[in-house]
Amino acid sequence: MFNFENSAAWAGARDQRDELASFREQFHIPRHQESESVYFCGNSLGLQPRKTRDYVNQELEDWAKLGVEGHFKPHTGWFAYHELLRESTARLVGALPHEVVVMNHLTVNLHLLLVSFYRPSADRYKIICEGGAFPSDRYALQSQVEWHGFDAEDALIELQPRKGEHIVRQEDILAAIEDCGDSLALVMLGGVHYFTGQVLDMKTITEAAHEVEAYAGFDLAHAAGNLELQLHDWNVDFAAWCSYKYLNGGPGTVAGAYVHERHARNPHLPRFAGWWGNDPAQRFSMPHRFVPVPSADSWQLSNAPILEMAALRASMELFERAGMKRLREKSLELTGYLLHVIRAVLLDKGNPGLLEVITPFEEQQQGCQLSLQFNTGGRSVFESMTASGVISDWREPDQEGRSGGVIRVAPVPLYNSFMDVWRFGEALRTAL
User: Fold this and answer.
1) Which of 36, 177, 238, 387 is the most exposed place for a label (fewest CB within 10 A)?
2) What is the pLDDT of residues 239-268, one digit of tens each?
3) Which residue, 428, 51, 33, 431, is CA-closest to 250?
4) Which residues are 50's β-sheet partners?
């Protein structure tokens, strides 16, 4: 248990003791007037590491000086540039190195993986996903189902919270898997729900899917760089994530994918083929027949986007130095302090019912994000806080039609401080 105090003195003293505090200096913090803003939007777009410009400029200089020969320059040649991200990516998501690859963008990777892991039959064709999933996930699943000739209204089982609740209970997820039984082809869920911030028990869900002989895959857009993941040990079949949120790779940058080794090393598993997924030993001999690399690399289609990967390298080096264990520990404390500050402000205002935190309070179901549901006036609160230099994220009312909408707030342990949290509380006090 943490002993919090809603004061600038407490927050400043806690920052002095923070062994990760120096990482903040490695990022460009947006400014508001004469001071740094309170940037709590890393769940939407992470901040730029200070080394990003150097890494990208190096590749631009090499392109200018070397032209095509840059593919084979020592140490960082473009031909194998994705290898520079392999080890750090594997450690980030708890995978073996040959189970991960950095490539493409999130929804592209989801489609490529669904080609391999959604192979429906007349009897086994259903997919379990979360209701209110991020739209691109829903679109991808719907289009895959319809591509195979099924009706999405029948094939997609969309999990919904119980009436009056905000999150889907674990027992309801497991019950849905059991109920589908032999008709279930795939469980495809967000590891962290983008709207509520709920963290799912991916290990138990995977086990349940495998019990009925279905695959289990996860969208980790809000989980990679946020949680301690153990994809290999959890026996997850596949996963994909973006790199522009918690991973600070830059807007719209290159994404990542994971395929468990039992699938990655199976040359008979169907997949879409491309030049860069072919055995690199034969790549320039231009073979007529595709020979998949015995790793997640075989899902690659084209050569690496070097400038995007250069930007991501700068951030991944910081993750390597900080370590996800330490980051997760600080994240839980930061988010706990944020909850404490919000409650203190509401009590001071004499109206604790002005908003509801719809993110679960239990540590195992909580990441960096808290979602604040307003009964009314949420948009004006958000705009007032933005005008005061607090950058968070506004989401329109959810599908149940609540009038106030949600402010998503994400204190990121790599660059946010306890003083940021206290300043957020004071801005909320003023806005209310």
Assistant:
1) 387
2) 999 999 999 999 999 999 999 999 999 999
3) 51
4) none
